[in-house]
Amino acid sequence: MAVGMAMKADQVGQYNYSKKITLFVVLSCMVASMGGILFGYDIGISGGVTSMDSFLKKFFPEVYRRMKEDKEVSNYCKFESELLTSFTSSLYIAGLVASFVASIINDSFGRKPTIIIAGIAFLAGSGFGGWGYNVYILILGRVLLGIGVGFANQSVPLYLSEMAPPNLRGAINIGFQFCVGIGVLMANLINYGTQKIEAGWGWRISLAMAAAPALVLTIGAIFLPETPNSLIQRGADQKKTKLMLQKVRGTDDVQAELNDLIDASNNTKTIKKPFRNILKSNYRPQLVMAIAIPFFQQVTGINVIAFYAPILFRTIGLGESASLMSAVVTGCVGIVTTFLSMLSVDRLGRRTLFMFGGVIMLVSQIMVGAVLAAKLGDEGGISKGWSYIVLILICVYVAGFGWSWGPLGWLVPSEIFPLEIRSAGQSITVAVGFLFTFIIAQTFLAMLCHFKSGIFFFFGGWVLVMTLFVHFLLPETKNVPIEQMERVWKGHWFWKNVVGGDKYNEVT
User: Fold this and answer.
1) CA distances from 48 to 79, 187, 194, 327, 380 (A)
2) Phi-psi region for residue 456, left (φ > 0), alpha (ψ -120 to 50) or beta?
3) Which residues form the Major facilitator superfamily (MFS) profile domain (predicted)?
4) Which of 194, 145, 135, 456 is nearest to 308 (CA)?
5) CB-count burial class (<10 Å; 0-12, 13-18, 19+) for 3
6) Which of 256, 295, 259 is nearest to 18 (CA)?
7) What is the count of structural domains for the chain?
8) Do 343 and 174 form a contact (C-beta atoms < 8 A)?
């Protein structure tokens, strides 16, 4: 057994790659990660805006009337409106379609142009949002933001994973989710401030402020270097690629990594239709993860909190201002725990974080559901004490997500695809994520009305399923170079039977 473990370390854990982290890489990844801030801002801003009285009164008067006047409507049903949920969910159906277009641009022109297009789309969407004079203009703005999100989510995680040295790839890639958390917190803080504008147009500032990080991303992306992986994939001269790789790694000794990039590039030339080839059995593990991980990330129920936290807090009886401040608190918790995940992911590994996070989310969701079932009826609210208990439990849940499925749901898919199917695999990951984000965003208020407190037991059941999925089917990928990732599948107890690997010891 000891011999087997030693062989595993030799064959999977040790690679002749530079482990330096250069200022060049840090600055490049910081600029690219602005795409995460924009994604988080767009997630966080909609829930706060749609809970503001001035916004509801102008665009959704029937919802406003039910919330303020109709005592016969259940607490869980006051915000139910297909048009209201369309305002939130339209972003994600647009992102789903855009991600496939972004895949083609990613492959043909590189990561950098894809990020630039994302920034331009964000700018246009924020303009329509701030200017909107009817709900359809607002939805058009959300669609443009969705295009930006589709392009950013397709390109930024790949950019970060390809620029990072293998031993720090987890921490650098989680920077994307960390920036998503910063974006959510920024949105919550801005919503809390603009809600206090008595003239009733504060929501315009909230929607238009997305232009600030969008401008930084667009201008910054112009100066971004292209990744060595993308250069070699698109036929760049090997000397040029080597010079870029030396600059990225901060050393002249990059031949081993360059050779792996060239080998991967040669494989891409034999694959003309990556979306068809990803269906082949030797890519079956990657395809399963490309579908399962974003699906599970969405059915954790996190977007119930991200999109509708202020509405949820208003449902349990908190006022408008208190609900928005509660969303700020959960946003802070998410940032702190994501930062802790950045510090620990390359030491503890992906599986450990997934497992602990899953347990934390499961327990907290069950407890929230139990409190609401026992204390919140169809009318009135719950006491302030129980409201704070619900808030604490939701913060515990957000901490579990920020520690695990939040960052790792982006990290793991971005690092497991070989170069020849990388953009196709990332497109599937992003598209599946957007599809189920759209479904949950569009149906949540109706589900809340019908399931009531049972909504938390519903999502808790999915957390149990996905934790078991990780335990049995996801191998550990920490410290494995991105171009040698096929080793983890050939050494896994289950996947080696699918891909035909038997020359490596089991990797779990």
Assistant:
1) 13, 8, 10, 8, 22
2) alpha
3) 28-478
4) 456
5) exposed
6) 256
7) 1
8) no
The rounded distance, in Å, linking the Cα atoms of 356 and 109 is 40
Inside any domain, residue 265? yes
**263 domain-assigned:** yes
Task: Specify if 436 maps to a domain.
Answer: yes
Phi, psi at 252, each rounded to 5° = -80, -15
Question: Amino acid identity, residue 317?
Answer: G
pLDDT tens for each residue of 336-378: 998 899 888 888 999 999 999 999 999 999 998 898 888 776 6
Residue type, 331: G
In a domain, 97, yes or no: yes
Sequence-separated (6 or more) residues with CB below 8 Å from residue 346: 167, 168, 169, 170, 171, 478, 479
Calculate ∠ Cα 29-41-47, nearest 5°.
155
Cα distance between residue 342 and residue 350, in whole Å:
11
Nearest residue to 63 (alpha-carbon basis) of 44, 86, 94 = 86
pLDDT digits (tens, 9 = 90+) for 136-187: 888 888 899 999 988 998 888 888 888 888 778 888 888 888 888 888 888 8
Give the DSSP letter of residue 52.
-
Largest CA distance in the chain: 73
In degrees, to the nearest 5, what angle opens at C-alpha 84 toward C-alphas 80 and 86?
A: 115
Taking the complete model, does pTM exceed 0.85, yes or no?
A: no
Give the tokens for residue 14: 């040790």
Q: How many angstroms separate the CA atoms of 153 and 476, rounded?
A: 23
Q: At a CB cut-off of 8 Å and minimum separation 6, what does 344 contact? A: 353
- Give me the domain span that covers residue 450: 19-499
Q: What is the CATH number of the domain that holds 301?
A: 1.20.1250.20
Closest alpha carbon to 417 in 186, 161, 184, 216: 161
* Contacts for 504 with CB less than 8 Å, ≥ 6 apart: 8, 11, 12, 487, 490, 491, 496
